[in-house]
Amino acid sequence: MAIVTETARAGITCDLQKHHLEEDCRQLLNEPNLFTDVTILVDGQRFPAHKLFLAMRSPVFAAMFSHKLKENETNEVHIEDTDPEVVQAMLEFIYTDRVSNITPLARDLLAVADKYNLVGLKTMCEEKLYETLQTDNAGEILMLAEMYGSSDFVSCVIGFVSDHFRDIVQTEAFDEVNSVEILKRLMDALAAKKRRRAHA
Amino acid sequence: MAIVTETARAGITCDLQKHHLEEDCRQLLNEPNLFTDVTILVDGQRFPAHKLFLAMRSPVFAAMFSHKLKENETNEVHIEDTDPEVVQAMLEFIYTDRVSNITPLARDLLAVADKYNLVGLKTMCEEKLYETLQTDNAGEILMLAEMYGSSDFVSCVIGFVSDHFRDIVQTEAFDEVNSVEILKRLMDALAAKKRRRAHA
After folding, report:
1. Could you read off the pLDDT of B112-147 as tens digits, one per residue?
2. Who among A14, A18, A123 is closest to B14 (CB)?
3. Nearest Cβ partner of A11 from B12, B57, B156?
4. Any idea of the CA torsion for A29, A33, A34, A35, to the nearest 10 degrees?
5. Which of A90, A104, B80, B168 has its CA 20 to 30 A from that of B133?
6. Distance to chain B for A118, nearest Cα, Å
7. Beta carbons of B49 and B36 less than 8 angstroms apart
8. What b/e readout covers B53-74, taking b as 16+ CB neighbours within 10 angstroms?
9. Is B49 helix (H, G, I), strand (E, B) or coil?
10. Taking chain B, what is the end-to-end CA distance rounded to the nearest angstrom?
11. Chain center to CA of A146
């Protein structure tokens, strides 16, 4: 009996690379009334959402919805410390792994990602902030890194500041750096650089 | 003030390609007790699941859980017409877009994917069946395609059968082909081939 060669099957077209899962999750964001069971309230705006998605992505939401907390009984989460557009971007990340407008929101999103322990979103914000790092904003980003950033991110920003220390130390943003720990880490980095130079 | 070049930022490592969403969805499959709200029962086995995920992926489940059907009130879905391992593979697809062991299950999964209108799973099964298409199973796959397959898949299998008609017509599997519609479509394909040869 003839065994048919591969070329005989060339006619079929399948697109297995297509990620239906991602599309289906994004669809939930676009049709938010399908099975929503919680509302996020920020500054008078209401964002319907799904406890399962929030909990699946954030251990903080998971804990909130696993216990008899007020949020879990009223099905409302009030967020006081950020803006509606930041919460909207956080929800976009939660449902789709993407944030379409991250650049102007990276600072505020980093704080929210830290609060809700959204590791992937935190990394996205850190990369965006690192891209925009310059002498005149390095002091500000160093303080943000210290408050909300991962330890990798803090190390990277300290590395950048020590590499451009002469310029950065004169900036207004650097005047605002008021963490003893960060200033000591920066001094260590500068001293290590000096030692490397002396040995070179 | 110095503008820092790209090379100065080479230190940071971020992996934005990593799909946290897919991992987080897969996690739900591995820790099935987190917020599960429905159980699928097959042949005495119980699979805890989430209505939201089933509904997000399958319009049939979406309809089931949107109305006052028995399944939605008892939070149990009884599936009678397939095996536990097929349901487990279907759940793996629903939560992860993948099926780790598709080859031996492709026939049964195609039927389940058709029943619950899981388009991506259907395509995966069709591609797998098309890969295994040979003269001695072509009749069987033609019948499967007619019962459960997409119209593209039916066309592809008919193309294959008409290309290897002389061998396939003698097989036992072809004896089982008992659909008038399919036989007529096959005859059309053979006649079209003859006409093309006559014109060549």
Report:
1. 999 999 999 999 999 999 999 999 999 999 999 999
2. A123
3. B156
4. 110
5. B80
6. 10
7. yes
8. bbbbbbeebbebbeeeeebbee
9. strand
10. 75
11. 15
Phi/psi at A180 (nearest 5 deg)? -60, -40
Mutate to test the interface with A, among B22, B35, B50, B132 (most CBs of A within 10 A): B35
Taking contacts as CB-CB distances below 8 angstroms, the residues of chain B near A122 are none
- Quickly tell me which residue has 């991602």 as its tokens: A22
Cβ atoms within 10 Å of B100's Cβ, excluding its own = 7
Domain extent listing, chain A: 20-118, 133-199
Give the mean pLDDT of A40-63: 95
Q: At the topology level of CATH, where does A20-118 sit? A: Potassium Channel Kv1.1; Chain A (3.30.710)
Angle at alpha carbon of residue A61, lines to A67 and B57, rounded to 5°: 105
**Up-side HSE of residue B90: CA atoms within 13 Å toward CB?**
30
Residues in chain B closer than 8 A to A136 (CB atoms): 1
Dist CA B72 CA B69 (whole Å): 5
Taking the C-alpha atoms of residue B43 and residue A57, their distance in angstroms, rounded to an integer, is 33
CATH topology match: B20-118 vs B133-199: no
Output the pLDDT for position A19: 64
